[in-house]
Amino acid sequence: MSPTDATGAGPEGPGDVLEPEDRARRGTPLLTVRGLHKTFGDNHVLRGIDLEVRRGSVTALIGPSGSGKTTVLRSLNGLAMPDAGTITAAPSRRQVRRGVPDAESPAGEPLTLDFSRKITKQQRFALRDRSAMVFQQHNLFPHRTVLQNVIEGPVQVQRVPRAEATWRATELLERVGLAEKRDAYPHELSGGQQQRVGIVRALALRPELLLFDEPTSALDPELVGEVLAVMKELADEGWTMVVVTHELQFARAVADEVLFLDGGVVVERGNPERMFREPRRERTRQFLHRLLHPME
Amino acid sequence: MDWELARNAFWPILSGGLTGTIPLTLVSFAIGLVIALFVALLRLSPNVILAWIGTAYVSVIRGTPLLVQLFIVFYGLPNLGVVIDPWPSAIVAFSLNVGGYAAEIVRAAILSVPRGQWEAGYTVGMGTARTLRRIVLPQAARVSVPPLSNTFISLVKDTSLASTILVTEEFRKAQEIAAGNPDQILLLYLEAALIYWIFCTALAAGQSALEKRLDRYVAH
């Protein structure tokens, strides 16, 4: 799939994994982020970040360490709390489907978190409810089997009957080639397998948005490919994804939009093909050059 | 050495252990763990006052002798009109004591669970309480088994102090028999010591087995 197809309906393919409400709203804004600021002590990590995530699109955040890209990602599901700025989320799928209002927004209206005011627990949960996250260090639960990891959220939080959650988890594990590992403990898996289980755990929550925080950075080089392949497949199916990554090849192949962050601001944004070929900012050029030619 | 006496005394002393020492230990330890978890959470609380209460509790328990704590509960509280029987007094004092020591163990164990585990819990939609219960505490439990076992084994021996507040446990049984046989005190107390040793050795074996079981999901 070429990036320009991102907002069009794909061919039949395995797209039926997407929920109909998400599919129908393809191309519409899911999250709109305005003017995020965040300070850790003296460190002003975010200095006014704007970002729009459209349904069905893949957004890649790249930049040197300390640029604020992970903090932006974590802000999108309330793991990081910005000091100022807003995040507006379109009405959730559940809301659309059943007319159930979010705790903090009556049905039909978007949810807005204004970080210059106090964010309530309900608001944070309502925002988090839309997404699922895949971590750099997979963060699987070591005391739970693969299957138990995957069904934990659906069964405990979403009250999905255990049999149904198990059936769905098995199906998802099959898709990433790990069905026979369902009763293994995380430490018995390779790094790439652990990360694929991490992705399945996220998918099992039926999120509207998938967040990836450098999902391949902690892996041995020969295991990176299997994880990126799964992510590419998800992108092709039309999942909405925001990915913090150092994998430029992946970003080029999969992302619809790349944001280059440095010093807490978006230095440059645009189509990856264009940006990687002819960056407009000197800072972008330097960064890309160093990533592509580390020995120079 | 009067071996005949030793043989006759064995069962009464052992039964003091089985009906006194062991139930006293089990009940006090169970209640103590609940107190410990509660105090550990106080100490981990972002609320300064709650954290201070937890810290003060641990400081008082660890900074005063267990024997004094026992005497305060059993002989001291009646001055305030609070009269508690020997058994409940012992349970109260030992539970509070275990609570203070184990709180530090539980707190350290909770802190040893990586931050990412909390975050993973949050991102699958769980709140703090549920993440603590389902994700963090099971992992903390594994870390805290060895130090908690030490606390438990110490408690087995510490319950002999309950003999001073009229609880009929193993050591008090030995004392009662010794009172009628003043020339065989050494033998009888060695016998009591031997029975404590057997209890503790069995517990240490149980500890290893438990650690092995809890280690099954950890890479070696």
From TrEMBL, chain A:
Localisation per UniProt entry: Cell membrane
Annotated region (Disordered), positions in chain: 1-28
CDD domains: ABC_HisP_GlnQ
A family per Pfam: ABC_tran
Keywords: ATP-binding, Cell membrane, Membrane, Nucleotide-binding, Transport
PROSITE patterns: ABC_TRANSPORTER_1, ABC_TRANSPORTER_2
Any one GO MF annotation of this record: ATP binding
Cross-referenced SUPFAM superfamilies: P-loop containing nucleoside triphosphate hydrolases (SSF52540)
Lipid bilayer topology: Peripheral membrane protein
Domain (ABC transporter): residue spans on this chain: 31-288
InterPro entries cross-referenced by the UniProt entry: AAA+_ATPase (IPR003593), ABC_ATPase_HisP-typ (IPR030679), ABC_transporter-like_ATP-bd (IPR003439), ABC_transporter-like_CS (IPR017871), MetN_ABC_transporter-like (IPR050086), P-loop_NTPase (IPR027417)
Name by which UniProt lists this protein: Amino acid ABC transporter ATP-binding protein
Organism of this sequence: Myceligenerans pegani
Taxonomic placement: Bacteria, Bacillati, Actinomycetota, Actinomycetes, Micrococcales
UniProtKB/TrEMBL annotation, chain B:
Sequence ranges assigned to domain ABC transmembrane type-1 in this UniProt record: 18-207
PROSITE patterns on file: ABC_TM1 (PS50928)
Compartmental location: Cell membrane
Keyword Membrane: yes
Signal peptide: none
Keywords for the protein's UniProt record, in alphabetical order: Amino-acid transport, Cell membrane, Membrane, Transmembrane, Transmembrane helix, Transport
Membrane topology term: Multi-pass membrane protein
Transmembrane segments: 20-42, 49-77, 186-206
NCBIfam families named among the record's database cross-references: HEQRo_perm_3TM
Record family assignment: Belongs to the binding-protein-dependent transport system permease family.
Protein name from the UniProt record: Amino acid ABC transporter permease
